[in-house]
Amino acid sequence: MFERYDAGEQAVLVHIWFSQDKESEDLQEFETLVSSAGVEALQVVTGSRKSPHPKYFVGEGKAEEIADAVNATGASVVIFDHALSPAQERNLEKLCECRVIDRTGLILDIFAQRARTHEGKLQVELAQLRHLATRLVRGWTHLERQKGGIGLRGPGETQLETDRRLLRNRITLILSRLQRVEKQREQGRQARAKADIPTVSLVGYTNAGKSTLFNSITSAEVYAADQLFATLDPTLRRLSVTDVGEVVLADTVGFIRHLPHDLVAAFKATLQETREATLLLHVIDAADLRVNENIEAVDEVLTEIEADEIPSLHVMNKIDQLEGFEPRIDRNEEGVPIRVWLSAQSGLGLPLLWQALSERLSGEIAQHTLNLPPEAGRLRSRLYQLDAIEEEWNQDDGSIGLQVRLPIVEWHRLSKHYPALSDYVIK
């Protein structure tokens, strides 16, 4: 669709500091993003400005320096750690005679590589098309050229109009497919809400260790790697938590500073799991030097998707990379767990996470002594499945005595399924 230079795997990187936020820009994270995309960085060009230049984003002298770096290294692409306007992208491509990609394009490329499920691929394509739509007007060098050929001569559609229409049609099609996916997820959420099953959603900065933690506590085999955006597709698993019963745990896409708005919009169905959660597990890389900035970046995205009011528990991960650090639970003035220090990789401190989850999610607890007749074997089996039996003994008349402890919600649910349950309670 574009008459543009082809992008390659060898790049010149450009990172500009602006006086007002020099501290918050992170060159190292940009380089990690580039390596996550499978691109080799041949040279890094840095500089500082008070504001972006309208023509090249950087000054004309710096733009010439970037073009010289491309010639000297033989790079096939220039990657900016900033959002470029379509005009700036086009002007830089003319000057450097190679493909120019901004931060949004880079993140979209990584997402395209990582998407595994049908839904994930649709979400990435939607974000890519929305990004592309803003660049169409600069993408063609023959905007006024109209289609030729028999039956197509004269005042027909220009190439630009045709492409705009095709893009709109494709975006509409993807949106309708994603709406179906969203409806299915909504039905699942409603069923869980009806059954009083709490949902715990893992959130956090990209590469904080969410998928490793998810695998550790669910024995799942979700793809986990030491790279940015290893997880794109939401994965749900059921857990059994003491004094709570069944809980659904959701692993979600990682957040990052300056996350493109197109991506937030495209991943609406995925992020809905976060918005509808009972509790957020905010996984934090405790060994990262910029831990506070990462927390702020995640909080910003949570505010953007209207999930900032949901109760959260901070999980300080990777303490095995900190010297002399022991796992522990931090509590507020009321004694409620607010922070758990652990290592998902080594398993250090995981029992403390289970304890904190139990405390944060459990409501009232029902404790009863039951006298079950021999024909109530199915009820006894269900109580074992719920891990509710604390003690069991045989009675002289052949019945079974049980000491049970379980959440009041689970007790009411059992009472509906087994109307005789209240008759078995020893008053």
UniProtKB/TrEMBL annotation:
Compartments where found: Cytoplasm
Residues given in the record as Mg(2+) binding sites: 211, 231
CDD domains named in the record: HflX
Residues that bind GTP: 204-211, 229-233, 251-254, 317-320, 343-345
GO cellular component: cytoplasm
Keyword Transmembrane: no
Gene Ontology MF terms in the entry: GTP binding; GTPase activity; guanosine tetraphosphate binding; metal ion binding; ribosome binding
Main location: cytoplasm
Keyword Magnesium in record: yes
Family annotation (Pfam families): GTP-bdg_M (PF16360), GTP-bdg_N (PF13167), HflX_C (PF19275), MMR_HSR1 (PF01926)
Domain Hflx-type G positions: 198-365
Annotated keywords: Cytoplasm, GTP-binding, Magnesium, Metal-binding, Nucleotide-binding
Cofactor(s) required, per the database record: Mg(2+)
PANTHER family: GTP-BINDING PROTEIN 6-RELATED, GTP-BINDING PROTEIN HFLX
Oligomer and partners: Monomer. Associates with the 50S ribosomal subunit.
Similarity annotation: Belongs to the TRAFAC class OBG-HflX-like GTPase superfamily. HflX GTPase family.
Function: GTPase that associates with the 50S ribosomal subunit and may have a role during protein synthesis or ribosome biogenesis.
Name the record gives this protein: GTPase HflX
UniProt source species: Rosenbergiella nectarea
